[in-house]
């Protein structure tokens, strides 16, 4: 008698994304194509029909049904309903997000209570960073940084503050660094002198900015290694990224924090300085 329990069917998109990450290695090549598309294009999955989505991914419609069954859904329609429900709940601005969270959960949004409500989840996320990132992965990241002639740093939109801080901290550490700020849409020109002896350090959050993806692709074409700080293990450029560190940020009232990313940025710079000092003393 087989007593093995079936995994529970995801009830939210966050649960589905977590399941996709955890079970990604056990999927067939075609199911991985579907997984990549679903993670990167949730709105398309919510709004288009089965045939159109299958055509976009270049798989058969039956593959989408198998993908839905793989995660415990009765069929594609049931899986798509999860995306449609999420889409209905989406709100654009921060003001609308706070109002929406308050209406949905009754979240406290007054005065000093916010300090406690926000600091708790963020503190926990920072504490878990040393668990989420293994010593080997962190050491590999430091190795890439320490061997680079010049570190090119890039990050767009929400990721830009982390990229800017990394550039500032590396400058203060006397490391040769260039911030790819993309002013005037000149990020390609800023990469003209990129070589295989340099490093592209990218900060990239879902949904990953096209400008950042383009920088990663250019680095790959120039045989330049890339180190990517990201909030998701399934990245559109995952096939060409040299190494990645995954950051899990806390989310409160529809807003995702940057505290864990900033903490990681500081640790990377301090770790690089410690490694350089050890090399000089050795």
From TrEMBL:
CDD domains: SIS_RpiR. Residues 14-90 form the HTH rpiR-type domain. It holds the Pfam family SIS. GO terms for molecular function: carbohydrate derivative binding; DNA binding; DNA-binding transcription factor activity. Coiled coil: none annotated. It comes from the Bacteria. This is HTH rpiR-type domain-containing protein. It comes from Endozoicomonas elysicola.
């Amino acid at each position: 008698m087989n007593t093995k329990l079936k995994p529970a069917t995801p009830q939210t998109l966050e649960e589905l994304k977590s399941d996709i990450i955890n079970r990604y290695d056990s999927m067939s090549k075609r199911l991985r194509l579907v997984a990549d598309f679903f993670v990167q294009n949730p709105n398309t999955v919510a709004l288009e029909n089965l045939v159109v989505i299958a055509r976009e991914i270049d798989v058969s419609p039956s593959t989408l049904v198998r993908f839905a069954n793989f995660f415990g859904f009765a069929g594609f329609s049931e899986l798509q309903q999860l995306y449609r429900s999420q889409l209905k709940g989406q709100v654009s601005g921060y003001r609308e997000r706070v109002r929406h969270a308050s209406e949905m959960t009754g979240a406290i949004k007054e005065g000093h209570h916010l300090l406690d409500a926000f600091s708790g989840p963020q503190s926990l996320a920072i504490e878990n960073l040393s668990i989420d990132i293994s010593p080997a992965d962190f050491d590999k990241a430091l190795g890439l940084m320490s061997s680079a002639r010049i570190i090119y740093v890039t990050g767009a939109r929400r990721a830009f503050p982390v990229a800017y801080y990394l550039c500032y901290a590396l400058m203060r550490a006397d490391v040769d660094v260039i911030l790819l700020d993309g002013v005037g849409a000149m990020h390609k020109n800023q990469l003209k002198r990129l070589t295989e002896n340099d490093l592209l350090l990218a900060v990239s959050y879902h949904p990953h900015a096209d400008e950042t993806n383009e920088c990663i692709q250019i680095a790959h074409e120039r045989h330049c290694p890339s180190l990517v700080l990201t909030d998701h293990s399934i990245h559109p450029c995952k096939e060409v990224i040299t190494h990645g560190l995954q950051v899990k940020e806390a989310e409160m009232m529809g807003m995702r924090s940057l505290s864990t990313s900033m903490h990681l940025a500081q640790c990377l710079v301090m770790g690089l300085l410690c490694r350089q000092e050890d090399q000089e003393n050795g």
